[in-house]
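P.,

For your records, the input lines for the assembly:
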Amino acid sequence: MINFSWQVEYQSKNNNARTGILTTPHGKINTPAFIFCATKGALKSLTTNIAIDNNTQIILSNTFHLMLQPGSDLIANHGGLHRFLNWNGPMLTDSGGFQIFSLGYGSVADEIKGSANIKRNKTLLSISEEGSLFKSYVDGSFKLLSPEKSIEIQRNLGADLILVFDECTPFHVDKSYTEMSMRRSHRWATRSLNRFNSQIKYKPCFGSAGEQKLYGIVQGGIYEDLREESIEFNLNKIDKFGIAIGGSLGSSKEEMYKVVNFTAPKLGNKYPIHLLGIGDPRDIWNLVKSGIDTFDCVSPTRLARHGSALIKGKLGKKNIKNKKFANDLSPVDTTCGCSTCKNYSLAYLHHLFKAEELLGLQLVTAHNIYFMNQLMKLIRISIENDSLDKAEKDWFS
Amino acid sequence: MINFSWQVEYQSKNNNARTGILTTPHGKINTPAFIFCATKGALKSLTTNIAIDNNTQIILSNTFHLMLQPGSDLIANHGGLHRFLNWNGPMLTDSGGFQIFSLGYGSVADEIKGSANIKRNKTLLSISEEGSLFKSYVDGSFKLLSPEKSIEIQRNLGADLILVFDECTPFHVDKSYTEMSMRRSHRWATRSLNRFNSQIKYKPCFGSAGEQKLYGIVQGGIYEDLREESIEFNLNKIDKFGIAIGGSLGSSKEEMYKVVNFTAPKLGNKYPIHLLGIGDPRDIWNLVKSGIDTFDCVSPTRLARHGSALIKGKLGKKNIKNKKFANDLSPVDTTCGCSTCKNYSLAYLHHLFKAEELLGLQLVTAHNIYFMNQLMKLIRISIENDSLDKAEKDWFS
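Structure tokens returned:
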């Protein structure tokens, strides 16, 4: 029985875009696909059943958050995260590496918008060869996250796809720091792999959430020679199922496109390629052409909670709180088949946000999730029709 | 075609309890039944679809809140509240009378707990023969709610069952105020009825949410002679479909039981009897024996948002936030068939509340709604088996 597999279904004639099928013990993912963030084990305002109703293929949760609250032993007691949060589909966990970066410097999106903190905040205490020392936001205690610890936690959580532990270097550090950090992340990747191989299941007595597969992460910031070195490491030095592109993607969209377009094609099509932390439809249209197979970002669900419903076109969203929607009897998008657009008007959603009714967050989240899944479906169809450029142009016109 | 009807199905041999079927153009309600509060047009954190999945028969919304935000004209534009909030089942709206009381004095529950404000707060400006003048909590503007205005708004909203406009007198006022207020509420009831009869549909061009039927309200506080006078008024002086019991129910549960047990039996079984603002299972077990057919209260959904999951027994609830549930792999109630108990553990719910994840509010709300609907179903079966006392005893043992 093959629990895991990766197969490219169609390779574009015009660029590096491709469609594929990523098979896990919890189901198949048609790629390119979007992975939604259940950061702390919940899609914020949405049940997993509604996420499925709106075509969700895969979700992710975060090692960093779950190790602090409720703790991975407790989740292992449940037989894993799938059962804990009632999700029977494919799942990924990150290694906690991205959160070290966020804690220390601000998020990738902040950085691309130029609003990242230049100074580290006080939650991240130190990064050493051993791992990362930080202060728990739950109880203020000191915690060390190391490659071994990250893998142990991810073994406990039991997601199908898990990541090696890395430092996600920011843009504003110099090349020598990026190089040093990258090489340390490579050593951490080797340690992650060793720990991964030494324990099929960290606590097998707790029941099984199925087999797991490991992703490596390409570092190197915006420096092509460093990216080359990291690509070489990931392709030839560690045993992995998939490869993620991490680290700094620069300080502008142009730089990000350049880094990804330099990196992804060199990774070939033997492994599914994940791009960490990117969710803007404009970026997704662009970066599937470099060969990215999966994306994740909190943005679709976070935007929803701020009242932004995603739509096609240059504008990209409707601000539900805008007064102009107060008496608008049409749904967010008359052509949308989501559970929200089928049942509710803009006027109702506007009312819910004005009246601070929790239901509003849930309904716009459901729309944004369906929207992203439809976007990815359209991209898959367009790749297989060799009409990606036209479809992208139509999308924004 | 009969759009509305009321029929007693079984009259208990032991007390005034009865089962019945209340038919509306949007469906039938098996009584005794609980009506859930979609105060501002939403069941707070829950979609109407999930409410239906958890056996909800009927919901109510509030004239007072909806007149201020988003306004009843807007809802009429939608063809009524049913379409606005995506609920195709039976619906009731209150007249705004209860909110005058809440604004001025605190809620019924506050009063029974002895924690009502003795002084009126500043939102309620005055009550006169014309109606009630108050300050909008949305924009600070002055608003008058009169019997005519309340009925016009309720015609716009289009709920199946609507209420005459009344003042819900508090306990701490003296008998002479209660008497004066009751007689004014009777005059308001007549004005409500006149307005109701003069307009089949306030703005019929806006589409139809179906026919509507009016409930009278029995006032008189804790004074039996006043309750007698109000019962006589409601039975013989106005044309109504059902009768609600309103006004002060005293300052203790014993007093409330006494008032309801004095009033409800005298109303007979020709009309469905609604008790306003009561939702504690202990009270419901007790008061169905007086002949109450429907109850409403925010408590099941409000308790859920505070982390209290309703259970059988003397305790009556589990506080999800209690540390003892942190590692409890069982659901709230192993015998419960709600969408939450079927899919989620106490440990997960505890985690969601600790992590301040919105999903927690939704999942406990779904449980509490199912719980109340199961309670009412058990009560109906027990009435028809003439085993109500035994069923009540078992419930709390």
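Two observations worth noting. The CA atoms of residues 381 and 387 of chain B lie 8 Å apart. Residues 116-120, 202-209 of chain B have pLDDT under 50 and may be disordered.

Regards
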